[in-house]
Amino acid sequence: MPSGADLIRKIKEQIREVDPREVHDLIDARNGSNGAVIVDVREQHEFEESHIPGAVHVPRGHLESRIEGAAPDKADRVVLYCASGSRSALAAHTLQSVLGYENVESMTGGITLWKDRGFEVE
């Protein structure tokens, strides 16, 4: 039976990951997200502590029941992030493989790498 780390590694092979620099540039280009939806899948207290400007909050535990409120068009680009990139990878896999979203990405390194690169948070 695979470990949790093995599962996440396997899932990351099945999804697209995007570097925080590309997400930052995407947000800068639109002064928003150029049609993309940036989704924070962390817990409420984590989101309240800090989040990427313009991100919508859909906790991983409520993803299936709330994502359509944040991203109703399954063809839109959806960029998910968490603290380190693991929960967002799982969420991306769910959106892509189970819910039929067509253009889903998980941000590598999550908000931790985002902050390490010196990008703005709210």
Keywords summarizing the entry:
122 residues, alpha/beta, five-stranded parallel β-sheet, 6 helices
Provide the gyration radius in Å: 13 Å
Biggest sheet strand line-up:
1-5-4-2-3
Overall SS class: alpha/beta
Q: Hey, roughly how much beta strand do the residues contain?
A: 15-25%
Q: Could you give a short account of the major beta sheet?
A: 5 strands, parallel
The end-to-end distance, rounded to whole angstroms, is 40 Å
Give the beta-strand count.
5
Number of helices: 6
Tell me the series of helices and strands, N- to C-terminal: HEHEHEHEHEH
Question: What does the overall shape look like?
Answer: globular
Low-confidence stretches: none
Residue share in helix: 40-55%
> What's the rounded overall pLDDT mean?
94
Description:
The protein is of the alpha/beta class. 46% of the residues lie in helices and 16% in strands. It contains six helices and five strands. It has helices at residues 4-14, 20-30, 44-49, 63-70, 86-98, 110-116; strands spanning 16-18, 37-40, 56-57, 77-81, 103-107. It has a five-stranded parallel β-sheet. Helix 1 (4-14) crosses helix 5. The chain is globular, with a radius of gyration of 13 Å.
